[in-house]
Amino acid sequence: MSQREWIEKDFYKELGVSSDASADEIKKAYRKLARDLHPDANPGDTKAEERFKSVSEAHAVLSDPAKRKEYDEARRLFASGGFGRGGFSPGAGGGFSQGGFDINDLFGGGAAADGGLGDLFGGLFNRGGGGATRTSSRPRRGSDVETETTLDFREASLGVTVPLRLTSPSPCTTCHGSGAKPGTSPRVCPHCNGTGIVSRNQGAFGFSEPCDDCRGTGSIIDSPCEVCHGNGVTNRTRTITVRVPAGVSDGQKIRLAGQGEAGLRGAPSGDLFVTVRVRPDKVFGRNGDDLTVVVPVSYGELVLGTTVSVPTLEGRVGVKIPAGTADGRILRVRGRGVPKRAGGAGDLLVTVKIAVPQKLDDPAVDALKTYLEAEKASGFDPRAGWAGA
């Protein structure tokens, strides 16, 4: 795909959002489309598969603030006539002049390692008429891919290894990503000498455009691979194993370098970002690296003191309740919480909560009445000092 074809794509239209859509709106639109168009949900539907790839490409650009800004600037220049058929129109809407503006200042000089717009436009212009063009444009890196996995609370806290089944563009296994039929190899384009761009002069300017013979790739494939048709990429389903570290929290992302969408003709693959969702637990809660749990106790246990058995992530532990402990007090057990990345673990925070019996037999009621009388005789008033007294 040439630079012009790429920049003329309307990524906003692909996602069905306006050009001033917020990051959350773009993310929401992509997730809905990706879910509806995913190849697993549309087996054998080539149109849905192509739409899925287009939507993923649009999201890869618009979800990255820097790429989105460059994309918007480039589209504005195209719309205003800043680029003509040959790549530049002197005096057009972009306001280029012999002594001043270099498009490489706008797009970062083509230094973007991820093959973004800086890479696309890094060699488009050079000033001074007749000067040498920039070096060969690098192959475009594959887009990043996002997916999700849902874990139980204890799995997320202790760490787990999970298999993920993905359907995404991957290096063709027949040609190993070269795009050429097995037994053959791509050859250097004789027209551009492998640079992917051709240069010409117009007045005081020297400027460049993608080579028509190799479509800006720098190489020509005489015998394309029959499986990937020369792209070096095919959609395939694969299962990868992801190690989720201990202590991961809900919404946290794990990056797997090089496991994203494959780059064209052997270019580096993008990354895979796995968002972890954690199911709530019936027993435990979490506060940072601390584990929280509520333990029911009786009134007598709080008054007289006792030791209760409390669950942990890996078993149980005895927790001593001192005599005279107030309802709702939090007792801390060091080092029995969620494992930390740097080593060690948080604490276990045990909240004691009185469980009130709904029904008592006669001996228990009589004993309780006797206790209340003795409590009153001792001078204890539970509402002493209370503002509403």
UniProtKB/TrEMBL annotation:
InterPro entries: DnaJ, DnaJ_C, DnaJ_domain, DnaJ_domain_CS, HSP40/DnaJ_pept-bd, HSP_DnaJ_Cys-rich_dom, HSP_DnaJ_Cys-rich_dom_sf, J_dom_sf. Participates actively in the response to hyperosmotic and heat shock by preventing the aggregation of stress-denatured proteins and by disaggregating proteins, also in an autonomous, DnaK-independent fashion. Unfolded proteins bind initially to DnaJ; upon interaction with the DnaJ-bound protein, DnaK hydrolyzes its bound ATP, resulting in the formation of a stable complex. GrpE releases ADP from DnaK; ATP binding to DnaK triggers the release of the substrate protein, thus completing the reaction cycle. Belongs to the DnaJ family. Zn(2+) 2 binds at C189, C192, C211, C214. This is Chaperone protein DnaJ. Pfam families: DnaJ (PF00226), DnaJ_C (PF01556), DnaJ_CXXCXGXG (PF00684). It comes from the Bacteria. A zinc finger (CR-type) spans 159-237. Keywords: Chaperone, Cytoplasm, DNA replication, Metal-binding, Repeat, Stress response, Zinc, Zinc-finger. SUPFAM superfamilies: Chaperone J-domain (SSF46565), DnaJ/Hsp40 cysteine-rich domain (SSF57938), HSP40/DnaJ peptide-binding domain (SSF49493). The J domain is necessary and sufficient to stimulate DnaK ATPase activity. Zinc center 1 plays an important role in the autonomous, DnaK-independent chaperone activity of DnaJ. Zinc center 2 is essential for interaction with DnaK and for DnaJ activity. Residues 159-237 form the CR-type domain. Its cofactor is Zn(2+). SMART domains: DnaJ. Binds 2 Zn(2+) ions per monomer. Zn(2+) 1 binds at C172, C175, C225, C228. Residues 10-75 form the J domain. It is found in: Cytoplasm. Its main location: cytoplasm. The gene is dnaJ. CXXCXGXG motif repeats lie at residues 172-179, 189-196, 211-218, 225-232. It comes from Rhodococcus tibetensis. Homodimer. PANTHER family: CHAPERONE PROTEIN DNAJ 1, DNAJ HOMOLOG 1, MITOCHONDRIAL-RELATED.
